[in-house]
From TrEMBL:
Segments traversing the membrane: none
UniProt keyword Transport, yes or no: yes
Gene3D superfamilies xrefs: Mog1/PsbP, alpha/beta/alpha sandwich
Protein name, entry field: Ran-interacting protein Mog1
Originating organism: Aspergillus cavernicola
Length: 232
């Protein structure tokens, strides 16, 4: 079992947990105001917290209709009704698609574990969903994803000889705050290349397990202590 450290976010307005020993990227480079980014000290994995405008019912459903595919059908059914659960799951899919490169050309999104509702221990009135997806791309860096461009000199998901296919597992938690018109997003990204390159399938499995445990820890420990963070 992994060990986690309590972590203040956004000046202490939110309390969370991060894997013990992970590094605050703001000590290394500038991070957008709506993000908090943490780096594994031994792998290319990243943990990203984001505060975004809440995806509206209209946007979630219209986006779903325009990108309806077999995976969405498997998650929501062939004729999804506009229930709160369907809207929230559609919002989760919207955010996952938003991670992908611009128009998504060259990127593929595969749902490993569909978004499913969880109960937050310290945000009992919020609707929250977690799941796992895999994004595969020929573009090794997307600014939106928060994956570092380079660690130790080589681009994540590439070789010194040129770009390779970049595959990353995304373990995520979506917290929907209706009154604050806010979505809190947490992504723990696990790039596969460093493990695949050395044939370390066990290492990849351990990293995936850490990612899942991190999301579970946040389900128990994520807390808003200053609601003024969201304005209004």
């Amino acid at each position: 079992m992994a060990t986690f450290t309590s972590q203040d976010l956004y000046g202490g307005a939110i309390k969370a947990a991060i894997p013990e020993g992970w590094l605050d990227a703001s000590d290394l480079r500038q991070i957008p105001d709506h993000q908090e980014l943490f780096l594994s000290p031994i792998t290319l994995s990243t943990l990203i917290f984001e505060i975004n405008e809440r995806v509206s019912e209209e946007t979630a459903l219209s986006s779903l209709q325009s990108t309806l595919n077999n995976q969405a059908l498997d998650i929501l059914g062939p004729n999804p009704e506009a229930s709160p659960d369907t809207i929230d799951k559609a919002a989760a899919l919207y955010h996952l698609n938003d991670i992908r490169d611009g128009d998504g050309n060259g990127d593929t999104l595969r749902i490993v574990t569909p978004p499913h509702q969880v109960s937050l221990a310290k945000l009992t009135n919020a609707r929250a969903y977690k799941g796992i997806a895999v994004i595969t791309s020929s573009t090794p860096e997307r600014a939106r994803s928060g994956v570092p461009t380079s660690i130790g000199g080589a681009a994540a998901g590439s070789s010194m000889d040129g770009p390779l296919v970049f595959t990353v597992s995304v373990h995520y938690l979506l917290v929907r705050l209706q009154e604050q018109e806010t979505d809190i997003l947490v992504f723990l990204n696990v790039p596969h290349k460093e493990f695949d390159g050395r044939g370390d399938s066990r290492g990849l499995s351990r990293e995936e397990e850490l990612a899942s445990e991190t999301v579970d820890a946040l389900v128990e420990r994520l807390e808003v202590v200053d609601w003024g963070l969201f304005g209004g």
